[in-house]
Write a structure and sequence with these properties.
486 residues, alpha+beta, Bactericidal permeability-increasing protein, domain 2, Bactericidal permeability-increasing protein, domain 1, 2 domains, seven-stranded antiparallel beta sheet, six-stranded antiparallel beta sheet, elongated, binds 2-acetamido-2-deoxy-beta-D-glucopyranose
Length: 486
């Protein structure tokens, strides 16, 4: 169970990390809703990245020749024009039916360049030239971007619907040469510089989106979750964009690695009826109970649901001497020997998400082995059914769980030591369950599984809500650095 829990944490993290989507009417088993608050967070992240990744931005050389009275023909060249700094002051993001709109309403930029002029006239037949450098400050720049996010064969197709850049005002400062004299000349280039900046910024944004798109499309459709299980992260449908959120649908079922899941035995699911908007969180990830069912199927089929419970200091019950009065014939045959319980899940567990907990009914086969002079001797086989509830909680960045035993029944399957008083054996087994196994499992689960930090970001104030057949995680995301300072 600790294992299932772990899987579950990983799934959550994975999705969180890749933040994927939805469209034809197919319903995923995992849905991700990113609220406006979450989109805002992503936008800030994106802009922070863009501010540095767009740079340095090289503009093409600008040159022209003008004929000025008396001076004659003057040849001017602006070269090595480089945008080396962009600061975004304010921006906003919103979604609509046709895409994701990002508007940068105030940005400044700094450019550097080299300038040069030369002329010769009939009055001054010797060629005159001068050169120097200049810095240009872009005082106000606006950028508008509309992105479309579609499903392409299970991956995302990100494309630019519109991208515009508008520079309002620039200031030019020359260094070197007789700069004061030629300032006027350079200023004459203002319009050309403005449109060069506008074109270069738009083009670079387009190029970056194309790159990002190819990254998105190359993301694997299946990710390994544990050594034997892989999660299908095929996106179903187009992302659903509304005014207040971006919703994604993911297949979300687990299968054994390198095997295709026959997913038709999973019924179509309804959407979760709970939305994280109610609790004002950045992101909501909903897992359908089929995700856990598929995980338990993989583990069951791989015969990984098998445990040996044996003697340990807190397990004094696992000794035939303790069973002496309950199963006297066992003690007679194997006095003072260790008992080992070989427990394996005998058929697929039933998993149901209840209110605030996960209910599981698990059928087990248990073989009672005694360890006599180093030899393991099976003495009896018991079939049992345990029904338990699992509770999950996220505290800080750690997933913590606990298990409560609801019901327990057993019957004797076979015995090599004659008739057993099954009611009495049941008493011992249930004592072992309650005093040894459950406390052990709970101790493991209460240690919690700490969620790794992804690219410097982690979850904060995560809430878990179970509704119908869904478990919904609502969370905020914060920078791990800020988090640790707090
Ligand atoms: C071109 O500009 C870059 C960045 O401002 C600078 O590092 C480089 O030295 C310049 N090259 C020339 C030839 O001026
Ligand atoms: C960038 O330009 C702005 C004006 O647009 C100016 O105030 C600022 O000092 C410049 N920064 C650098 C590093 O040159
Ligand atoms: C993953 O899910 C998609 C859509 O439900 C399905 O077509 C595909 O076969 C699945 N892949 C595997 C490996 O199960
Ligand atoms: C799917 O739905 C049908 C009808 O509601 C039900 O009989 C069947 O047990 C369901 N299957 C699963 C795997 O839940
Ligand atoms: C089982 O219990 C008996 C009696 O308490 C003890 O002598 C023996 O060492 C125990 N066996 C093991 C393997 O601990
Ligand atoms: C436990 O039982 C299973 C089947 O019931 C068997 O395959 C396995 O070998 C047993 N393991 C041990 C250590 O006895
Ligand atoms: C009875 O025991 C046999 C052998 O250990 C096992 O294969 C079978 O599954 C058990 N039957 C039941 C109903 O548990």
């Amino acid at each position: 169970m600790a294992r299932l829990f772990f899987i579950f944490g990983i799934i959550f993290l994975f999705i969180f990390c890749y933040t994927p989507v939805r469209s034809n009417d197919q319903e995923g088993h995992i849905t991700v809703d990113i609220s406006n608050k979450g989109l805002d967070f992503l936008k800030d992240l994106l802009i922070e990245k863009a501010e540095s990744s767009l740079l340095p931005l090289y503009l093409p050389k600008i040159e022209n020749a003008v004929t000025i009275p008396i001076m004659g023909k003057v040849h001017k060249v602006l070269s090595n024009i480089t945008v080396d700094r962009i600061d975004v002051i304010s921006s906003n993001v919103r979604t609509s039916d046709n895409g994701i709109h990002i508007a940068v309403s105030g940005a400044t930029a700094n450019l550097s360049m080299n300038w040069k002029y030369s002329y010769s006239t009939s009055l001054v037949p010797i060629a005159v030239s001068d050169q120097g450098s200049a810095t240009i400050g872009v005082e106000s720049m606006e950028i508008g971007l509309i992105l479309s996010l579609k499903n392409l064969q299970g991956s995302f197709k990100l494309s630019v619907l519109e991208c515009g850049c508008n520079v309002k005002d620039i200031s030019i400062k020359l260094d070197g040469g007789a700069s004061w004299l030629y300032r006027g000349l350079v200023n004459a280039f203002e319009g050309t510089i403005i449109s060069a900046v506008e074109n270069a910024v738009s083009k670079k944004i387009n190029d970056k989106i194309i790159k990002l798109d190819s990254v998105l499309q190359s993301l694997p459709k299946e990710v390994p979750i544990t050594s034997i299980a892989a999660l299908n992260i095929t996106f179903l449908d187009d992302p659903k964009l509304s005014e207040s959120s971006l919703d994604l649908e993911i297949d979300g079922l687990l299968s054994a690695k390198d095997e295709t899941l026959v997913s038709n035995h999973y019924n179509k699911t309804l959407q979760p009826s709970f939305s994280c908007k109610e609790v004002d969180k950045m992101v909501g990830v909903s897992l359908h109970e089929d995700v856990l069912k598929s995980a338990s199927t993989v583990y069951f089929e791989a015969k990984k649901m098998n445990w040996i419970v044996e003697y340990a200091s807190d397990r004094y019950l696992l000794n035939t001497s303790v069973w002496r009065f309950i199963v006297p014939q066992l003690y007679k045959l194997y006095p003072d020997d260790d008992i080992k319980l070989n427990i394996s899940v005998s058929s697929l567990p039933t998993i149901k998400f209840g209110k605030q907990q996960i209910d599981a009914t698990i059928p087990f086969d248990m073989v009672i082995d005694v360890s006599d002079a180093g030899e393991i001797i099976p003495v009896a086989g018991i079939s049992m059914v345990i029904s338990a509830s699992i509770f999950a909680e996220i505290s800080g960045n750690t997933v913590i769980g606990s298990v409560k035993l609801n019901d327990f029944s057993m019957s004797l399957n076979w015995s090599k030591i004659g008739d057993l008083h099954i009611r009495q054996v049941q008493l011992v087994i249930s004592t072992v369950l309650k005093t040894v196994i459950l406390p052990y499992v709970n101790a493991q689960l209460s240690k919690g599984h700490s969620l790794p930090v992804f690219h410097g970001y982690k979850l904060q104030d995560t809430q878990i809500v179970c509704v119908d057949s869904w478990i919904v995680f609502c969370s905020d995301v914060v920078s791990a650095k800020k988090f640790s300072l707090a």
